[in-house]
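Reminder to self: tokens first, then the designed residues, so the page reads top to bottom the way the pipeline ran.
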């Protein structure tokens, strides 16, 4: 039985089109999913849309749509189409207005209620519809506004159902203590521990004033609080309440990716909900940072919202993937800029990698009749490199994984400069074959390691090196593999045509 690997992205609100920040999380998830598949795991990669929010209603109204569901269907289709255009290999796309999600939510609610963890109470509080969350006065800025949305929260007073979150305080702390890998990066652990220790309160999980959403089972006059409903997507997508076998096969998730803005929901409320429903807790929640655009917050009013699809069309999907992983340390805040993307595209992809591939392939044609020569020395193995690379990828340290790969790109470039194969050819030196072999061998390993990160580029490299189409997995002996002497190389094609000149 292959090991299973279940990973999730947040489900996105559909009041807006996907921007580069949303694409970031989803692209990283795709890199992880592809990596795990190549190692032989059976992967389930879930993403989707969060539709039962007041934001959906507001957006539909703003767009002049009379039928909210129809509006939502159109927006959800746009989100799914965006991920497809970026070639993201998600296994399923969950929508919280799907009936299978509704079934899962009802079953989940029933379990938690049976535990005695849901009670009726009155809620009075300041609510920000932008965040879909209640605020304490101390959380607001000096103007009394939500610091994120810069608008005054509404005072809400109503009958609500509450989830006994505080009952799980000790259990949550004990779980986090016993599972150091649960909250990542580890720098976020203290923030969560502090929150659970000092600020945890029972949460209201229903809304009386809202109409759009999943009705509270047993009290149709209220709808479920969007977060209580939305978090359940992570299990409804694999069949909780509808496909028991699949649910058992994939749960608990190996990793749930989230932005740092929503880590509390995922590391306190969600695990407590799961404890209440007697369901296992995911292995890891990884919170990445937020990025600005050219140093500024991304916002419609500033007009600096970056569209992932047009960016990928201009620079290629692979270059966008490369840039996001290379420029922004996963787990930390960063800055996105098209200018930096263009520089890295030209320097690191065009010059360092693209030119290298083209020179190596052209030289095999020119000096070796288009055939990989025989190596005159024992070819160095790549086992240590693969160990480094795999270890980095498992830890989501993409910076380290890329630097391991680029060490070989630079070494190969140096080898060409130092060995000057054209001079060896002129002198009839038999070392020529060895040099050409070692270069091609290095590039083959570089290409294999790039498969999850830049799948199109890696496939083109393998084709040009004559290695054929990449397999579904790397195979067990990839670390010790060497390119075959006598293998015919393919035609040379430019991988990254110059941009901006
Ligand atoms: N619907 C909730 C999540 C529910 S999950 C059960 C939500 N949706 S969202 O549409 O606002 O998307 C949030 C996610 O988008 C963030 O957690 C983060 O992963 C990503 N990002 C949005 N803007 C971003 C940046 N500027 N930078 C990096 N990631 C960003 O919250």
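Designed residues (501 positions):
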């Amino acid at each position: 039985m292959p090991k299973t690997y279940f990973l999730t992205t947040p489900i996105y609100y559909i009041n807006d089109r996907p921007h580069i920040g949303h694409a970031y999380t989803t692209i990283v998830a795709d890199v992880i999913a592809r990596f795990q598949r190549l190692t032989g795991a059976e992967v389930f990669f879930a993403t989707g849309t969060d539709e039962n929010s007041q934001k959906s209603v507001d957006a539909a109204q703003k767009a002049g749509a009379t039928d909210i569901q129809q509006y939502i269907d159109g927006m959800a289709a746009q989100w799914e189409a965006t991920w497809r255009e970026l070639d993201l290999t998600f296994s399923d796309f969950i929508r919280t207005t799907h009936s299978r999600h509704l079934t899962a939510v009802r079953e989940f609610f029933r379990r938690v209620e049976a535990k005695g963890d849901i009670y009726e109470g009155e809620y009075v509080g300041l609510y920000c519809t932008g965040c879909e969350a209640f605020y304490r006065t101390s959380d607001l800025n000096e103007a009394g506004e939500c610091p994120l949305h810069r608008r005054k929260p509404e005072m809400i007073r109503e009958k609500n159902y509450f989830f006994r979150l505080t009952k799980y305080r000790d259990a949550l702390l004990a779980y986090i203590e016993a599972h150091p890998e649960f909250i990542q990066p580890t720098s976020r652990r203290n923030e969560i521990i502090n929150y659970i220790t000092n600020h945890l309160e029972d949460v209201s999980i229903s809304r009386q004033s809202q109409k759009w959403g999943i009705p509270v089972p047993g009290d149709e006059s209220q709808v479920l609080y969007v977060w209580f409903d939305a978090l359940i997507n992570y299990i409804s997508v694999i069949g909780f309440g509808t496909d028991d076998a699949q649910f058992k096969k994939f749960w608990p998730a190996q990793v749930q990716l989230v932005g740092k803005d929503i880590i509390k929901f995922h590391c306190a409320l969600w695990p407590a909900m799961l404890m209440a429903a007697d369901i296992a807790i995911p292995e890891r929640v990884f919170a990445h940072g937020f990025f600005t655009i050219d140093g500024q917050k991304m916002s419609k009013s500033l007009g600096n919202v970056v569209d992932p699809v047009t960016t990928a069309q201009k620079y290629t999907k692979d270059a966008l993937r490369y840039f996001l992983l290379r420029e922004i340390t996963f787990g930390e805040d960063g800055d996105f800029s098209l200018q930096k993307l263009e520089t890295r595209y030209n320097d690191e992809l065009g010059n360092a990698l693209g030119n290298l591939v083209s020179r190596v392939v052209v030289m095999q044609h020119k000096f070796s009749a288009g055939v990989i020569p025989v190596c005159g020395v024992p070819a160095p193995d790549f086992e240590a490199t693969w160990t480094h690379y795999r270890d980095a990828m498992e830890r989501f340290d993409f910076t380290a994984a890329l630097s391991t790969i680029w060490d070989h790109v630079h070494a190969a470039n140096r080898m060409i400069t130092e060995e000057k194969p054209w001079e060896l050819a002129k002198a009839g030196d038999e070392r020529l074959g060895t040099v050409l072999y070692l270069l091609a061998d290095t590039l083959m390993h570089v290409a294999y390691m790039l498969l999850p990160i830049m799948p199109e580029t890696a496939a083109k490299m393998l084709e040009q090196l004559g290695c054929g189409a990449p397999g579904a997995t790397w195979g067990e002996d990839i670390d010790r593999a060497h390119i075959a002497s006598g293998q015919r190389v393919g035609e040379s094609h430019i991988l990254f045509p110059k941009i901006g000149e």
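The first helix runs from residue 20 to 38.
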